[in-house]
């Protein structure tokens, strides 16, 4: 169940008042859902200061991607950990906030596991991420997730709109077979391929323009070029994963609406397709709809485990859309 930012903060505040606040939370949600705000509000509550003053508190530690590769590197985590094991300067709580936690490198994530499992006394760890599927399973298992929902309905991208149109056309088939499910999977893969090509071209052009601009003003070392190339490679991968996650989210919204239609829930994620999802809901059992929705959740998990992408998509689509 996802919460609004205010609901999440209220629940966390109550847990703190009752002495039941966990030591590690993962606050997740799409852009605009208020994940950072919740982390800062909770930190302010724990530190006894105003939200705007959290960053200036001696017992607050805020980590975000700083390297040229847009990653949180192991040195950042180790520096923070060394401070957390010291006595709090104000004698109270210590709070570490990790923004864009999904940008931790594998070595940084592994180095942080011990602190997550056995934090220093009076220490609270708040991880913030809009892409929690990119975090290691060992990180996820050591945090309590607080999922937030967006404050307003997001605008669908052109590719997401094409996907929902394909789902709508597919829903008109009374008894879709394996071949039709494969066709839908291929359409999904085509959307991903288009996204990858577009992102690659955009970032390659930006990289070349940056190198050209700097060559006109100063000497450019080979190490600088390599570092900027690494940065744009990381940026390309991050944006592709975001695009892929958005398309998977559309699939989840589709099956979520079917389940909501079965339970007569007023809110729909895709209200413009209410007739189509209602038609599927009427001819699908709740148990079957749940099974198919879980197949899409399994697709997210397989992406996180780096299962071969095309295979993961085909398996998920067969489970979710074949009769």
Structural account:
With 323 residues, the chain is α/β, with parallel strands linked by helices. The chain folds into 2 domains: 5-147, P-loop containing nucleotide triphosphate hydrolases (Rossmann fold); 158-321, no CATH class. The protein contains 11 helices and 5 strands, in the order αβαβαβαβαβαααααα. It has a 5-stranded parallel sheet, with helices on both faces. Helix 4 links the parallel strand 3 (94-98) and strand 4 (123-129). Helix 1 runs parallel beside helix 2 (35-47) and helix 7 runs antiparallel to helix 8. The longest helix has 41 residues, at 222-262. The radius of gyration is 22 Å and the shape is globular. The model has no long low-confidence stretch (mean pLDDT 89).
Quick description:
With 323 residues, the protein is an alpha/beta fold. 59% of the residues lie in helices and 8% in strands. It has a five-stranded parallel beta sheet with strand order 2-3-4-1-5, sandwiched between helices.
């Amino acid at each position: 169940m996802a919460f609004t930012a205010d609901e999440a903060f209220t629940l966390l505040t109550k847990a703190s008042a009752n002495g039941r606040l966990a030591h590690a939370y993962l606050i997740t949600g799409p852009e605009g859902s208020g994940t950072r705000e919740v982390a800062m509000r909770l930190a302010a509550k724990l530190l006894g200061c105003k939200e705007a003053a959290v960053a200036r508190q001696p017992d607050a530690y805020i980590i975000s991607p700083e390297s040229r590769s847009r990653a949180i590197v192991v040195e950042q985590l180790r520096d923070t950990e060394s401070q957390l094991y010291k006595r709090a300067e104000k004698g109270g709580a210590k709070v570490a906030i990790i923004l864009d936690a999904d940008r931790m490198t594998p070595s940084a994530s592994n180095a942080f596991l011990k602190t997550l499992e056995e934090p220093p006394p009076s220490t609270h760890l708040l991880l913030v991420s809009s892409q929690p599927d990119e975090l290691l399973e060992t990180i996820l298992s050591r945090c309590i997730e607080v999922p937030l929902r967006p404050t307003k309905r997001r605008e669908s991208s052109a590719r997401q709109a094409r996907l929902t149109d394909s789902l709508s056309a597919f829903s008109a088939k009374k008894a879709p077979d394996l071949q039709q499910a494969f066709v839908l999977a291929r359409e999904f893969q085509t959307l991903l391929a288009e996204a990858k090509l577009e992102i690659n071209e955009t970032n390659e052009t930006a990289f070349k323009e940056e190198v050209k601009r700097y060559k006109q003003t100063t000497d450019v070392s080979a190490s600088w070029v390599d570092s900027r190339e690494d940065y744009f490679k990381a940026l390309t991968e991050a944006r592709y994963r975001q695009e892929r996650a958005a398309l998977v989210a559309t699939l989840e919204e589709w099956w979520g609406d079917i389940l909501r239609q079965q339970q007569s829930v007023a809110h729909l994620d895709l209200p413009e397709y209410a007739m189509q999802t209602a038609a599927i809901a009427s001819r699908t059992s709740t148990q079957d709809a749940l099974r198919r929705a879980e197949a899409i959740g399994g697709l997210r998990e397989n992406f996180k485990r780096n299962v071969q992408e095309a295979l993961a998509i085909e398996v998920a689509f067969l489970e979710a859309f074949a009769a």
